[in-house]
Amino acid sequence: MISRRSFLKNAIKGVAGLSIPLSIIGIAGPRKLFALNNVTAGVRWAFLINTYKCVGCGLCVKACKTENEIPYDANVTRTWIERYVHLKDGRVFADTPKGGRDGFTTSKIDLGEGRYQDIDEKDIDKAFFVPKLCNQCENPPCVQVCPVGATFQASDGVVLIDRSWCIGCGYCIMACPYGVRFFHPVLQVAEKCNFCYHRINKGLKPACVDACPFGARMIGNIKDPEDPVTKVIMAERVNVLKSEYGTKPQAYYIGMDEEVR
Amino acid sequence: MKGHVWRPLYAVICLVVLVLAARYFMVPKDFGIYERGYMYGFHRKSAEDYWKTFKVKYQFNTDYCRDCHAEKYSIMQTPHAIIHCENCHGPVLDHPTDPEKLSVDKKRELCLRCHLPLSYPTSGRANIRGVDPITHNPGIECSACHNPHMPSLEAMK
């Protein structure tokens, strides 16, 4: 027989004991959980872009195309720069002539098909440049759709393409919500930014990061809490592109605006 | 069972064996499910090595050129110090062995990447002094008057 006293005692102990693991989950913020989920030490590359610092010189695009052997005059590129100009009357213009390869050497907006929009400086509310590149998503939709296993995510989070296995079906190009994939004009296989995988594995930085004179582009290991990039991502207000897709993109932006898609 | 049942069945079994054998020889041995699981990690391991051994073209090593082009390091005392040599002269590759010379781009467009004035609020571009290419000595290379490695206006006098 158990007495009422001992029953109550044990019940209290039991409930208290059960609630400890629950309360740990409750107290731990997203940051702590993030750390817990990533205890498997190692590397997870992430990108940080400061749109305030970008001047639109396009030296990153130039360096990227040369470093990664993307035909220089073909209108495809692994990274590109978009220009956004908000006018006082509410209109928003955006362009990316040649992906920004030659910089932005006119104040006119390229509307395509040889048409240009004149902009009067006095009408500008805000205007800025946004570099784009592969987000190396934690849940990459481009990888899921590949029918032959020619694109995949490496252990450090970078999504790579197996050039000799790719059949060129183009599903991944359609699947990417950010439009970072394209056909390599010479090899006829899918192509995209891979954070200069050959460089980051040799201790170098991606070509675009090194090329940027203004420090607008940074790369870091998000699993290392001491990494300067990780510190910014954790402590400052950063944003990612199209978070509603659930892709968990790993290119973080400082100074993002809602028109940027 | 009668022969007319067994015969097509044999054919099917042969076909299955054939396909399996072909698959065994055609699918590379290093195809497998790696760190990121079945959904994201299904690939040939050797594809990673392909990218890891891709040729590096840019060094972006600030001291690389110093031994041979020391006089150009005057740039380090100027606002142009932030621009790496290879941004204006192209990838170093194995220079000076191959190629023997790097390119020298004297086009005005190179400078206008930064010096075309765009007074965009919230963009660093607004802080760089610009010149209007239509009125600022048109038709003449910028480097005819400005030394890109020592752009200070004081030094021009």
Number of domains of chain B: 2
Shape of chain B: elongated
Low-confidence stretches of chain B: none
Question: Low-confidence runs of chain A (pLDDT<50, min 5 residues)?
Answer: 25-30, 36-40
Oligomer: heterodimer
What portion of residues of chain A is helical? 25-40%
Beta-strand content bin of chain A: 15-25%
Number of strands of chain B: 2
Report the major sheet of chain B: 2 strands, antiparallel
Major β-sheet strand ordering of chain B: 1-2
- The helix count of chain B comes to 6
Q: Over the alpha carbons, how many angstroms does the gyration radius of chain B reach? A: 31 Å
Helix content of chain B: 25-40%
The number of strands of chain A is 12
Concise overview:
Chain A has 261 residues and is of the alpha+beta class. Chain A is 26% helix and 20% strand.
Describe the 3D structure:
The complex is a heterodimer of chains A (about 260) and B (about 160). Chain A has about 260 residues and is an alpha+beta fold. Helix content of chain A is about 25%, strand content about 20%. Chain A has helices at about 5-25, 30-35, 60-65, 140-145, 170-175, 195-200, 205-210, 230-235, and strands spanning about 45-50, 80-85, 90-95, 110, 115, 125-130, 150-155, 160, 180-185, 190, 215-220, 250-255. A 3-stranded mixed sheet of chain A has the order 11-1-12. In chain A, strand 2 (about 80-85) and strand 3 (about 90-95) form a beta hairpin. The radius of gyration of chain A is 23 Å and the shape is globular. Chain B is about 35% helix and about 5% strand. Chain B has 2 domains: about 5-45, no CATH class; about 60-145, no CATH class. Chain B contains 6 helices and 2 strands, in the order αβαβαααα. Chain B has about 160 residues and is mainly alpha-helical. Chains A and B meet through helix 3, strand 6, strand 7, helix 6 and helix 7 of A and strand 2, helix 3 and helix 5 of B.
